Amino acid sequence: MGALGSVESEFSIVLVKGRWVLDSRANPTVEVDVVTAGGGVGTAGVPAGASKGAYEALELRDGGRKFQGKGVEKAVANVNEVIAKRVIGMDARDQAEIDRAMIELDGTPNKSKLGANAILAVSLATAKAAASTYGMPLFQYLGGKLARVLPTPLMNVINGGKHAGNELSIQEFMIVPVGADRFSEALRVACEVYYSLREVLLSKYGKGAVNVGDEGGFAPPMRESREALDALVEAIRRAGYEPGRDVVLALDAAASSFYTDGRYRIDGKELSREELIDYYVGLVNEYPIVSIEDPLDEEDFEGFREVTSRLKPLGVQVVGDDLFVTNVKRLAKGIAMGAATALLLKVNQIGTLTEALEAAFLARRNGLNVIVSHRSGETEDTTIAHLAVALNCGQIKTGAPARGERTAKYNELLRIEEYLAGEAEYLGIKAIKGSL
Predict the structure, then answer these.
(1) Is 344 helix (H, G, I), strand (E, B) or coil?
(2) What does the alpha-carbon distance between residue 35 and residue 268 come to, in Å, rounded to a whole number?
(3) Quick check: 232 and 173 in contact, CB under 8 A?
């Protein structure tokens, strides 16, 4: 159970309560309530990834037989019995101080003692409780009155790699609705392309091709990347839009997942680093691809610098996810080397809101784009929708416009657009190519 503490101001934390809930893969995860003396309430749930970078902060799991070892009772106990005692009585507005206190309480480099899942749930719930106490939406609490840019969505609509059971090596094939003037219009366009894609896959591959994966994307029985890209281009046209103008494409290669012993296995071939870079250049020249995430192995900073030097002049954003894992030290190394043009921001990779914001600010100060991202195992929590607007970063990855844990984020962005009314902005392609 949570505990009550002394009340010093309306922002003083008086209750911290953790519990386990289910994520979108039926695995347990940590959810936390934080309550302030002024009646502010924040609730946050933590997502989980399937394709994880080697340097991510550690999710604490129980092991044993329950949930096949994936239980989080230890992490929940750490919230209720350890973290609560430390943060109760602190001011919910002191986000950095609270996050630092939890990091020190944990005392490990990767939050493995208390669990990044326990720490992050408290961190996010604290920010929500402070915003609630002020009576303002989270995006304004974090970003101020200038927070008004609705993000361009990069929607995973065809799955491969670790997200699917087909032979596609590339993990995500995304549509990006860039030609609209408003987020709500962009979302409509994307939904229409999604409908058309279902029709294209159904007619070519049969009913089994339109079952959806963890992020709402389809997982058709394809073998080569060009099959997926051809299907996307056809779907865009069938929906009545022009590829390259109204809707463009993006890839998450997650290349570490098809890298072994110095070679990349893709499309039934084994390629060297240089050959794989040539392969990407070829795809970019054939299709309206504007962004490629994790094109090479997560250890290959030199290779990332090379692929960035090849793709940036072509107007393609090179995104570091497993390369950076939202870690300031790895990001700083990448910036110094010119190893990417964008950071994929996943708060659960690093484990506190403060550290995630530090990474975002470091990226933006050095001219890198920021894409706020979900995980493949999600909850109905909508924090990342607010975070994307708070940062004015202009890009979000939160899956296909299907499955409740994905649409929760899109629907929250619709509400934010409505709240901002005429002040809301939608940058479209400028969010991706503005700093290239």
Answers:
(1) strand
(2) 54
(3) yes
H-helix or E-strand spanning residue 364: helix 353-365
Question: Which one-letter amino acid corresponds to residue 408?
Answer: A
The C-alpha angle with vertex 172 and arms to 204 and 45, in degrees rounded to 5, equals 125
Nearest one of 282, 279, 291 to 176, comparing CA atoms: 291
The secondary element (H helix, E strand) that includes residue 96 is helix 95-106
The one catalytic residue in 31, 56, 172, 215 is 215
Six token digits for residue 239: 């929906």
State phi, psi for 6 to the nearest 5 degrees. Answer: -70, 150
Per-residue pLDDT of the chain (436 residues; tens, 9 = 90+): 344 444 469 999 999 999 999 999 999 999 999 999 999 999 999 998 766 677 899 999 999 999 999 999 999 999 999 999 999 999 999 999 999 999 999 999 999 999 999 999 999 999 999 999 999 999 999 999 999 999 999 999 999 887 676 789 999 999 999 999 999 999 999 999 999 999 999 999 999 999 888 899 999 999 999 999 999 999 999 999 999 999 999 999 999 999 999 999 999 999 999 999 999 999 999 999 999 999 999 999 999 999 999 999 999 999 999 999 999 999 999 999 999 999 999 999 999 999 999 999 999 999 999 999 999 899 999 999 999 999 999 999 999 999 999 999 999 999 999 999 999 999 999 999 977 7
Q: Per residue, what are the HEC states of 205-222? A: HCHHHHCECCCCCECCCC
**SS3 of 162, please?**
helix
The whole-angstrom separation of Cα 66 and Cα 146 is 47
- Tally the C-alpha atoms within 13 A of residue 292's C-alpha that lie toward its C-beta: 26
Check if the beta carbon of residue 292 is closer than 8 Å to that of residue 316. Answer: yes
Q: Which two tokens stand for residue 321?
A: 């996810």
Say which of 70, 346, 397, 409 is annotated catalytic: 346
Rounded CA gap, 254 and 264, in Å?
A: 11
The closest of 321, 38, 16 to 161, measured between CA atoms, is 321
346 is catalytic: yes
**Cα 149 to Cα 394: distance, rounded to the nearest angstrom:** 6
Residue closest to 394 by CA, chosen among 419, 422, 377, 370 = 370
Q: What is the C-alpha separation between 166 and 6, in angstroms, rounded?
A: 56
Question: Is residue 145 among the annotated active site residues?
Answer: no
d(CA 274, CA 306): 9
Chain-centre distance for alpha carbon 111: 20
Q: Would you say 98 and 124 are in contact if contact means Cβ atoms under 8 Å apart? A: no
Task: Read off the tokens for 47.
Answer: 């997502």
